[in-house]
Amino acid sequence: MTSKSICLNLSDRRNGRRPAKPSVVPGNESRLAASFAHEISNPLQSLIDLLHLIAGEEATLSRDVRRYLTLAREEAGRISQIAHAAMNGFGTAAGREEANVPEILDSVLRFYRSRFETQGILVTAHYCCPDGNLLVYVSALRQMFSNLLLNAADAMPNGGKIHTRISKAQEWTGQQRRGLRVTFGDDGCGIATDALQKILEPFFTTKGVSGNGIGLSLVKDTVQKHDGALRVRSSTKPGRSGSVFSIFLPAVELKQLSRPDSRAA
Predict the structure, then answer these.
(1) By mean pLDDT, which of 52-56, 111-115, 145-149, 214-218 is the weakest?
(2) CB–CB of 180/166 below 8 Å?
(3) Domain locations in the chain?
(4) CA dist., res. 253 & res. 235, Å (int)
């Protein structure tokens, strides 16, 4: 069989329970990840300091170089946030804030545009929601979008197409909550059936020595943090191969987050 799908509803609301605090990397694996993050944090801080010094010479730089420098500082800052989150068990210190989800995705697409162009990858984006604002964990959401895009690009070493879409939607099952559905589709090599059931597990990778198995497990963690749902479809059939990741992000009101039984941000 060359085509298969999995569907994960990472919400406990269907059973009337608050969702449990996610724990993506348990036990020894968590300590190992925290150790790696600690080793990364020191040279990373040096890199951030060097970028800050270069920014002091901004007046002598061209407009394009200044833009690249700004992007580099933003990305280094994001890596720092991820490292600190890993040292705290892959948690996120920042709470939810209202943000425009299409704008978050668009900023990630702009950052990777030149990279994808050099790889022969065409990316399309369709935003079918006049009001795409939700209460979200912005940094985690941006990292999730980045992971999904890079994962799709890795599946197309000879170029291809990535389609992204954000639309208003209703939950597939459970309470049928309203929210946004974010979809990433590619025409890459696809995911083998036996690997499809494992791709969201920490440290599982199909990329050999070039993969660390963290990216998609963090995607699962981010969906869970948002009390959402994730569906993955993939095919390895020649001529019709590819993968589709569909994420449902429920709309949450501020008053729901401020209830006594709400999870701490």
Answers:
(1) 214-218
(2) yes
(3) 3-22+95-257, 27-87
(4) 37
Determine how β-strand 160-170 pairs with β-strand 121-128. Answer: parallel
Q: Do residues 243 and 219 make contact, with C-beta atoms less than 8 angstroms apart?
A: no
Output phi, psi for 159, to 5 deg.
Answer: 90, 165
- Sorted by sequence, the CB contacts under 8 Å of residue 198 that are 6+ apart come out as 204
Q: Are 55 and 73 in contact (CB under 8 A)?
A: yes
pTM over 0.90: no
What is the reported pLDDT for 38?
65
Cα end-to-end span (Å), the chain: 43
Which amino acid, residue 16? G
Closest residue by Cα to residue 29 from 219, 255, 212: 212
Name the phi and psi angles at 225, rounded to 5: -60, -35
3-state secondary structure (DSSP) of residue 61 = coil
pLDDT at 3 over 90: no
CATH of domain 3-22+95-257: 3.30.565.10
DSSP 125: E
